[in-house]
Amino acid sequence: MTQAGRRSTIESLSNPLVKRMRLLREKRHRRAEGLFLAEGLRIATEAREAGVLPLWLFLGPEGAAHPLAQALIDATLAGGGEVVDTTPAILSKLSGKDNPQAIVAIYAEPKTSLADIDRGASPIWLVAERLRDPGNLGTMLRTGDAVGAGGLILLDESTDPYAVEAVRASMGAIFTQQLVQARWEDFLPWLRGGPGQLVATWLDGAEDYQAVRYAAPTFILIGNESQGMPADYAAAADVRVKMPMLGKADSLNAAVAAAVMAYEVLNQRRNR
Predict the structure, then answer these.
(1) What's the Cα-to-Cα distance from 58 to each of 10, 22, 89, 94, 159, rounded to whole Å?
(2) 219 contact partners, CB below 8 Å, separation of at least 6
(3) Mean pLDDT of all residues in the chain?
(4) Are the C-beta atoms of 135 and 173 separated by less than 8 Å?
(5) Following DSSP, what letter does each residue of 182-240 receive, concatenated?
(6) Residue 2: is its pLDDT beyond 80?
(7) What is the mean pLDDT of residues 103-131?
(8) How confident is the model at residue 134 (pLDDT cuts 50, 70, 90)?
(9) Helix (H, G, I), strand (E, B), or coil: what is residue 59?
(10) Which helix (H) or strand (E) holds 106?
């Protein structure tokens, strides 16, 4: 049985818990604590609906008074978390923003590995190689949620998915999508150990993305925003595809390319 949580009030900026949670804006402290921060009632509600509850829930006066907040408060306390009534100044300290959201929630970082993935759980998976921009990462998670993907696999030295900016950009999808961080040399043997078609977005010698028939589960591989993916990564894919570029630009934004591909795979399955 889960021990019931507690409710407290913190009004001092020098409070030890505030000082500790404020450091979660930095990657090294997130990793050391195994915690991350999410702002706003909407994202916290998305998490609750996905079955993920905060360990600490900081509420300003406006946040506590919102009609949707009570369900979040009740769930946090029932799950053994701590609800902290606090001030806008402390919320600003935690979030690093002058105009903070009325709710800041602290969550345990999931420890999901390739071995934990059930590839048959979804016909679509997104794979990003050296993704650098947290906004792109959040958008890919939102796209994955929209198309019913299983999750996002981040390869090599990608941006931290639990940075405040990435969590905010995901609009709650970070709680609905599985998220795995891995290296290419581990990912490829894992992929070849079971069913899965690896599709790389590529230019040279690639097929039109609508001319290919995609097999489930489809793993859509998107390269780095500025450099694309290494040639040997593309060569290891089952199929390489490209989207028509009719203007002067020679490539799409990484998150946009992932969305175009994901919806093409989804639409092929819907039209069968």
Answers:
(1) 9, 12, 12, 9, 26
(2) 125, 126, 127, 153, 191, 196, 197, 198, 199
(3) 94
(4) no
(5) E-HHHHHHHHHTSS-EEEEE-STTPEETTTSPP-SSEEEEE-BTTTB--HHHHHTSSEE
(6) no
(7) 96
(8) very high
(9) strand
(10) strand 103-108
* Per-residue DSSP letter, 79: T
In the structure encoding, which two tokens stand for residue 92, read together?
Answer: 């600003």
Cβ 83 vs Cβ 77: under 8 Å: yes
Is residue 222 a contact partner of residue 129, using CB atoms and an 8 Å limit? yes
**Residues contacting residue 249 through CB under 8 Å, at least 6 positions apart:** none
The predicted model scores a pTM of 0.92
> CA 99, CA 91: separation in Å to the nearest integer?
9
Residue pair 138/111 in contact (Cβ under 8 Å)? The answer is no
Nearest to 75 by CA among 54, 46, 61, 59: 54
The two tokens of residue 8 are: 């407290």
3-state SS, residue 113:
coil
- pLDDT tens digits for 55-72? 999 999 988 888 889 999
255 pLDDT more than 80: yes
